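Below is a filled-in request sheet from our internal design queue. Each sheet records the structural input a requester submitted and the sequence that came back. We keep these sheets so that new team members can see what a complete request looks like end to end.

REQUESTER: design group, bay 2
PRIORITY: normal
MODE: inverse folding
CHAIN LENGTH: 575
BACKBONE (tokenized):
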């Protein structure tokens, strides 16, 4: 017995020593590997620095940019030159035609990591459809039942909100109550719909079986099913967002009763009375001619494209209106135009892989909103942005190479990244506006504004010096490596939305109806428009910054014209 015990003790000692030895060896190997990688990085850095110093005029042969060189306005566009620079005889030699080459992979990887890090930091701060509403432990609305819902014909036709992570019954009720809707409905555990009318018949209660994403044990509808609540009145002092927007004075169509589905004749008619009537009927437009109120949508017969002089609509509240009743006042009600809000993934994989490419801050999210609502299909993304996903951009979570989306958002440039796509819509925006928009997003999220302290810190000049060259190189890379391009200028899209959007839809090989495009125009802003333009009491761009940016503008303008594209809009060029 003693021998057996001694052998067991000896074996355990050997095993303990062996485990200790293996652990020590593992730690030493890891330390050596870390030291080797650190040394390699330092060597590469020193070689890069010496290579840059050896090149004339601040030109980096491997594409690594020194921020100190960027501060020298004379270096300007030359900093974008690489060893395999593209020859372009159409460009003026004053603006360095040989710098039409991609940013090096190191910079692209750094930016990509920055995007992911920033997105992950911002995601918990974002709410969807509502403004920082705290969850209510117990919802107070009256449960009306489970109702069927169809994306082509919504049961509740008012506002639509999403919170694919934190949706609760209380969130939805408060969002609808703030907009003075009578009913709040939840579907798929994460979608919220508001409205003023319910169908006559309900579905079976057990068909509403999806748990709320942010509230375990609570039911938030189901597949094509709505859990509907009658909304309680808001607490005293709570703010209603029952905004009525004046759209303008327009020539009235020849037959108003045929053009508009609902109407009301009311003595002493007011804007509030007409808007309330149309809101209850769930129409986005309220049209007033004299004592007549009409409700409807923008259509081909009444497109709201040709507004008249506002003086023609003065004194409208008489028996027949001015100018013999030929003109009418038009207001936008709080009701959302839902004729174009249905979206889905492609049923079969797309044969053409299309990019929606832009520099950050150039309106890519807005363009995605327009494309999705015009085509009825989701757009994808090279990145994953939880805030956008929660806002209803469901393609964010789909793999960017799945080909189930109509196009894929990207801010990437460079030969490898560009040649993965068969074609691309290249969205370009004034660099002054793009830089400011991206700086706001970096420090305050999608909807916020950077503080004056941010603008006056050293972060702003450093940001301009590094990102201004990226604005230029992004366009130039896509011009060089892109296989089939459609150039869209943000300013043109904003000014002539329907013609430019139709051009984009045709490029995507899709067809849409005129009414759907008018619906998109009616919902043009989406959920990511910053409220107003926050004016600063100082000029953020120094003269040195302007000199740098203006040279990039001229170079990009010449590159576009050299490839038979329309040059940059006039407002870009030197300010």
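RETURNED SEQUENCE:
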């Amino acid at each position: 017995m003693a021998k057996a015990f001694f052998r067991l003790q000896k074996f355990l000692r050997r095993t303990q020593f062996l485990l200790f030895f293996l652990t020590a060896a593992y730690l030493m190997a890891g330390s050596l590997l870390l030291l080797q990688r650190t040394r390699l990085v330092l060597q590469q850095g020193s070689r890069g620095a010496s290579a840059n110093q050896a090149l004339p005029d601040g030109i980096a042969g491997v594409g690594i940019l020194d921020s100190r060189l960027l501060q020298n306005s004379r270096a300007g566009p030359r900093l974008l030159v690489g060893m395999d620079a593209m020859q372009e005889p159409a460009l003026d030699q004053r603006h360095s035609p040989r710098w039409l080459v991609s940013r090096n992979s190191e910079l692209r990887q750094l930016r990509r990591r920055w995007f992911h890090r920033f997105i992950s930091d911002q995601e918990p701060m974002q709410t969807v459809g509502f403004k920082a509403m705290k969850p209510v432990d117990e919802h107070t609305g009256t449960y009306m039942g489970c109702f069927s819902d169809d994306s082509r014909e919504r049961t509740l036709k008012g506002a639509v909100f999403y919170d694919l992570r934190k949706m609760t019954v209380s969130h939805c009720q408060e969002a609808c109550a703030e907009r003075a809707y009578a009913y709040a409905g939840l579907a798929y555990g994460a979608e919220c719909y508001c409205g003023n009318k319910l169908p006559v018949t309900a579905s079976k209660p057990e068909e509403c079986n999806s748990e709320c994403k942010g509230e375990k044990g609570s039911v938030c509808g189901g597949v094509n099913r709505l859990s509907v609540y009658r909304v309680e009145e808001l607490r005293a002092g709570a703010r209603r967002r029952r905004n009525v927007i004046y759209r303008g004075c327009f020539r009235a169509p020849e037959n108003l009763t045929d053009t508009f589905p609902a109407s009301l004749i009311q003595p002493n008619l007011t804007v509030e009375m007409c808007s309330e009537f149309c809101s209850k009927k769930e129409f986005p437009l309220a049209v007033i001619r004299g004592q007549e109120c009409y409700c409807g949508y923008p259509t081909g017969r009444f497109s709201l494209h040709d507004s008249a002089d506002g003086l023609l609509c003065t004194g409208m509240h008489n028996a027949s209106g001015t100018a013999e009743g030929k003109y009418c006042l038009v207001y936008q009600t709080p009701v959302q135009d839902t004729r174009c809000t249905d979206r889905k993934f492609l049923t079969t994989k797309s044969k053409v892989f299309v990019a929606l490419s832009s520099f950050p801050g150039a309106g890519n999210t807005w363009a995605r909103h327009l494309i999705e609502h015009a085509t009825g299909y989701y757009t994808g993304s090279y990145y994953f942005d939880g805030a956008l996903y929660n806002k209803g951009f469901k393609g964010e979570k789909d793999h960017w190479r799945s080909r189930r989306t109509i196009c894929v958002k990207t801010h990437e440039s460079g030969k490898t990244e560009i040649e993965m796509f068969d074609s691309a819509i290249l969205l370009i925006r004034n660099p002054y506006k793009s830089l400011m928009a991206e700086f706001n997003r970096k420090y305050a999220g999608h909807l916020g504004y950077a503080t004056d302290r941010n603008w006056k810190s050293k972060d702003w000049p450093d940001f301009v010096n590094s990102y201004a060259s990226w604005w230029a190189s992004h366009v130039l890379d896509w011009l060089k490596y892109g296989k089939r391009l459609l150039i869209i200028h943000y300013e043109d899209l904003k000014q002539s939305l329907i013609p430019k959007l139709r051009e984009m839809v045709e490029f995507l090989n899709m067809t849409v109806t005129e009414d759907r495009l008018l619906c998109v125009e009616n919902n043009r802003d989406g959920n990511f428009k910053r409220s107003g333009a926050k004016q600063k009491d100082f000029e953020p761009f120094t003269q040195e910054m302007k000199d740098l940016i203006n040279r990039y503008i001229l170079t990009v303008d010449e590159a576009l014209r050299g490839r038979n594209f329309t040059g940059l809009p006039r407002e870009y060029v030197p300010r």
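SHEET NOTES:
- The first strand starts at residue 142 and ends at 148.
- Residues 37-110, 112-137, 235-239, 317-322 have pLDDT under 50 and may be disordered.
FILED BY: M.R.
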